[in-house]
Amino acid sequence: MKSKKTANKLQIDTVIKNLEKRNMKGYYCEDKEAACQLVLSMIEDKSTISWGGSVTLNTIGVKDRLAERDVKIIDPYTTTDRAESIERRRQGLLSDYFLMSANAITMDGELVNVDGTSNRVAGLCFGPKNVIVVAGANKLVKGLDDALARIKVNAAVPNSVRLKRNTPCAITGVCNDCLTKGCICCNIVTTRYSGIQDRIHVILVNEDLGY
Ligand code: SF4
Fold it and tell me: Ligand 1 centroid vs 183 CA: distance in angstroms?
């Protein structure tokens, strides 16, 4: 276990160096509590905050902690009204801070994300002033081919099951590259360079978090 943590740390340090050449800023956190504290320290009071759907953000508890702060939160996921949820997703794209995880991060520092409604990848690409990505060491992969393989096996399938989607993978556990209404793989986005320096902050946590 100790060796795994040490190996994770070495890999995260490499990714942080490679994020820098891609105009993104990387951070190391030992565990989810440290990650939560770091996110909180990055966000000023009076800010507007939104987020994409993320098991990782739920797990580190940062959403509850932000709710105690003097900030404005636009949460698309606290309403069952689909039209209201879509409107909040639209408004979230003008936030000061947009929080999300990543489905895969290559050792060379590329972020790879798959999205259904696609507000999450939209916020990553453009709109919010700052993007804070929190990802566990389980999201690290060697290269882009491994990122897509990880997404199809370890990310999209469990997320389809979690979201109770009517997709082939939610029934069989296997992706068949569906073109169905419930598909959560509408956009697969690789972020290889940030056009705005240090807009994208990537917090890498030495634990397994999310899918
Ligand atoms: S079956 Fe469809 S929703 Fe499921 S992982 Fe494949 S493309 Fe995505």
Answer: 6
- Report the Cα–Cα distance between both ends of the chain, in Å, rounded: 20
> What pLDDT is attached to residue 142?
98
Return d(Cα 39, Cα 77) in angstroms, integer.
Answer: 20
How far is Cα 170 from Cα 41, in angstroms, rounded to an integer?
38
What is the average pLDDT value for the chain, to the nearest integer? 97
The answer, yes or no, to whether any atom of ligand 1 lies below 6 A from the CB of 176, is yes
Phi, psi of 37 (to 5 degrees): -60, -40
Q: What share of the chain is helix, strand, coil (3-state, %, to 5)?
A: 40, 20, 35
To test ligand 1's pocket by mutation, which of 118, 162, 176, 179 has the most ligand atoms within 8 angstroms of CB? Answer: 176
Q: What ranges do the domains of the chain cover? A: 2-205
**What is the rounded CA–CA span in Å between residue 100 and residue 132?**
6
Q: Whose CA is nearest to atom 3 of ligand 1?
A: 183
Sorting pLDDT into bands at 50, 70 and 90, what band is 199?
very high
Question: What CATH homologous superfamily does 2-205 map to?
Answer: NagB/RpiA/CoA transferase-like (3.40.50.10420)
| Closest ligand 1 atom number to CA of residue 180 | 2
Site to probe by mutation for ligand 1, drawn from 117, 157, 180, 186 as the one with most ligand atoms within 8 Å of Cβ, is 157
